[in-house]
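user: can you give me the structure for this one chain? tokens are fine.
assistant: on it. calling the predictor now.
[tool input]
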Amino acid sequence: MPKSRLEAFSDGVIAILITIMVLELTVPHGEDLAALRPLEGIFLAYVLSFVNLGIYWNNHHHMLSAVDRVNGKILWANLHLLFWLSLFPFITGWMGESHFAPLPTSAYGVIALAAAIAYYILPTVIVAQQGSDSRLAAALGNDLKGKVSPILYLVAIPLALVERWIAVALYVAVALLWLVPDRRIESAPVR
């Protein structure tokens, strides 16, 4: 079946998730810069999650540009990814409202890890359907970023309970790792 419905649905879900997160930002009570101080944690958590969701959207778009068709397994793998992404507004709000308290910061890592695993599963299912000689398979290669990201999250999750700012730095490091769209797909030869 064509991929257009999967792309449109995924784009819509991610757009809604970003909208939900921004609606959590409340108007400050006051008219000076000091009025923004209580919103600092919420805003920083929002920025981190906005960037993460943007990265997923961008790389998802690039990945699907190398896909010819989808099947039921791909649809379910995509829904699996969207499920974990749909938890970002909740976990972002909790982490931000708590000013990056250890448990919410660790839980953020759990959701980020689950999303990373789901994102790793999706192209695996696509390649299984389209074949090891597909454009996506050629572009992915050994997928070092896809393997390093979950490891960094696994380190950050327990670390958040001990030193939350190092864990947050690891979350930011993963985001920076993925910030540039996956050029492997753009440069992969069309077959």
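assistant: here you go. Residues 102-130 form the longest helix (29 residues). Residues 4-187 form one domain.
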